[in-house]
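Q: What structure does this chain adopt?
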Amino acid sequence: MIRSFAYFITLLRKDFAEYCGRKLEEIGLSQGLLFFILYIGKHPGCSPRELAVALKMDSGHVARSLTRLEQAGFIFQNLNPRDRRAHILELTAKGREAFDLSHALFFQWDREILSGLEPEERQILLSLLERLAEDRRGTCGEGASGHGL
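A:
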């Protein structure tokens, strides 16, 4: 098999997606909607437009996803008191639990996947990955800058 950085990142991303998928399925949340929960949880009161820009998604997809999240009881879409034509987004108690679970999943997976490394090896790896991510911020092909989470 090809020994490249992209190959190993792809393998690890797939493993992480499967790990999260199993846990999220238990609470009725898909991986695709996880990023909505993460963004709204970190930016309570954000607008659907702000969310669409941050996640680099079209407004129609965002609207459909928000409707699904609201119907499933993860979010509230309330009228913006300053602009009655717009909405603001908030997590419900169920949404907050999903937000907390998602953060726990990131750390649990890290512990599992990095358990074979010594503490200083883990620190070096994370520092190098952070540096790579910072160097690439805004340069992924067309200037995209990730999910803003």
